[in-house]
Amino acid sequence: MQIIVIGKSSCARKLADYLAINKENIVFSTVKCNYANYTDILPNNIQEIKDFISANEISLLIVADIEYSNIEWGEILSDTECCVFSPDYFGAKLASNLPFGKKFAYKSGLLTSKFSVFEKFQPFSDYIKTAKFPVVVSPETISDMETSYIAETREKARQKAEFLFETGNKKVFTEEYIHGKEYTVYFLTEGTNRIFLSDTISYFDEVSTNYTNYVSKEAKDKIFNEYIPLFFNSFMEESSDYTGILGLKFIIKRDEIYFSRFKTFISDIDLDIILKTLVNFSDILYKTASGEIFQNENEIEKNNEIVICADKDGEFIAAQSKSMAGALRLMEFEGADINEALEHWRS
């Protein structure tokens, strides 16, 4: 398969190199890599990338960096044979614009940390005089190159905010820092369909593991049976045609579960771990982008015969619905293992 990875981050580099190791793939990248072929095209140079795709018969374009996902790649490449793996405008805004994402999560019924947005430095400076530290200070819109900063002191917070305003950011976002287990759940989605991809625990966005037994069963049950259905019900009302990866990051502090961030791709610290657990990730991305990964589900949905089942604590549970999404929601409500249910259904 011929693939091009769009991005300049270390995440884009890791992904391109991983895909290039498979000898069946010919991989190009807009960032210099160890194994993938580097193409000296700016990621936002739309016409050059389109010409490159046509000339090299590219089958799959993957947007790894969120700042390049505001381009309508699907529409631009609609007259080519290239499939596009990239979030749509609404999904990208949820993940990159922190106030927008937080407000959407709150409206969806998810518990979030307290946050504020400032358009000038002086109101920010006044605010942190009474703030409880540490606090998180960020540009309103984050990217792979400009992320959140945890300020331990008022002086550090002032310095970061002053720097952000001086470097062209029109707004500064701040929120209370919640110390707890950082738990992220990733899904592959295509329209109203979704499949669990992986979950991880991270620490201060510096180290990550897929050994998620550190998260209690009660916390996972609440996330999968309450929070995730709440989010997807709201999300599908706004973006029912979304195709790609959706990640939800939570902070678990004792008995409280706070929503933290949306992800439209696997984060840099999670990527290595997740890639090691998946077989032929390029095929997964291609089949998601082309709709093939849900082909069986869609064919059966036409006959209104979706039935999935799983074992929960020795008890056999089944759910039937006119859609796969509906059946999955029923299984989530019953507290069954969705991944196990899908494996059982496919077999």
CATH architecture of the domain at 2-86: 3-Layer(aba) Sandwich
- Name of the CATH class of the domain at 2-86: Alpha Beta
- Rg from alpha-carbon coordinates: 21 Å
Task: Please report the distance between the alpha carbons of the first and last residues.
Answer: 27 Å
Extended strand count: 16
Helix content: 25-40%
**CATH overall fold name of the domain at 2-86:** Rossmann fold
Cα shape:
globular
Describe this structure in words.
With 347 residues, this protein is of the alpha/beta class. Among the domains are: 2-86, 3-Layer(aba) Sandwich (Rossmann fold), CATH 3.40.50.20; 114-176, Dna Ligase, domain 1 (2-Layer Sandwich); 303-347, no CATH class. The protein contains 13 helices and 16 strands. It has helices spanning 10-21, 46-55, 73-76, 89-96, 98-107, 121-127, 154-166, 217-238, 268-277, 281-290, 295-301, 324-334, 338-346, and strands at 2-6, 26-29, 37-38, 60-63, 83-85, 115-118, 135-139, 149-151, 172-176, 181-190, 193-203, 207-209, 243-253, 256-263, 306-312, 315-321. The strands form four sheets. It has a five-stranded parallel sheet with strand order 3-2-1-4-5, with helices on one face. Strands 12-11-10-13-14 form a five-stranded antiparallel sheet, sandwiched between helices. It has a four-stranded antiparallel sheet with strand order 6-9-7-8, with helices on both faces. Helix 1 (10-21) runs parallel beside helix 9 and helix 4 crosses helix 5 (98-107). Mean pLDDT is 85; it is low at 296-308.
Keywords:
single chain; 347 residues; alpha/beta; Rossmann fold; Dna Ligase, domain 1; 5-stranded antiparallel sheet; 16 strands; globular
